[in-house]
Amino acid sequence: MPTGVYERKKRWQWKTTKNHKGSTGKHWHVSGRIHSEETREKMSVAHKGHEVSEETRKKIGVANSIALKGRKYKKDGEYLTPKNKRAREVPEMRLWRKAVYQRDEFTCQRCKERGIYLIAHHIKNFAEYIELRSSVDNGITFCRNCHDEFHKIYKKSENNKMQVLAFIRNSIR
User: Fold this and answer.
1) Residue 75 and residue 91 in one domain
2) Residue 70: what pLDDT?
3) Which of 49, 117, 130, 135 is the most core-located residue (most Cβ within 10 A)?
4) The pTM is what?
């Protein structure tokens, strides 16, 4: 087949479209999917019968804001994510994690690995012991695998220092 004779179709191209309310906008469209004016008009008429209530629009908007933007969106003055999640993202927690890592010399306290993904684990539960959240003595450094294994064994609530000590003692070295 000779080269340079055949013109290659563009895979994507800009297309100006009109929605059912009459406003226009530019959108990317796959080539081969551009419809005639008559077909677009028929599709527009077909979509007009599917009006969405204002209540449904709000629900969709809230769901999208959670999925796309996360914790920054509020609904009626309330955050959409749990308070504990927000509390973990404050600057004090970032400083607490750094202090725990430095104290433990950036080493997993169970498997003694360095240079891997570390997690600063609260010995007493973050949610239950609010006054101990930023206490460096209430933290220990685990790697991701050890941290996951700890929670498989001891679950995620009512954790204490005895569990952590037993977990470290029973490690395979």
Assistant:
1) no
2) 46
3) 135
4) 0.53
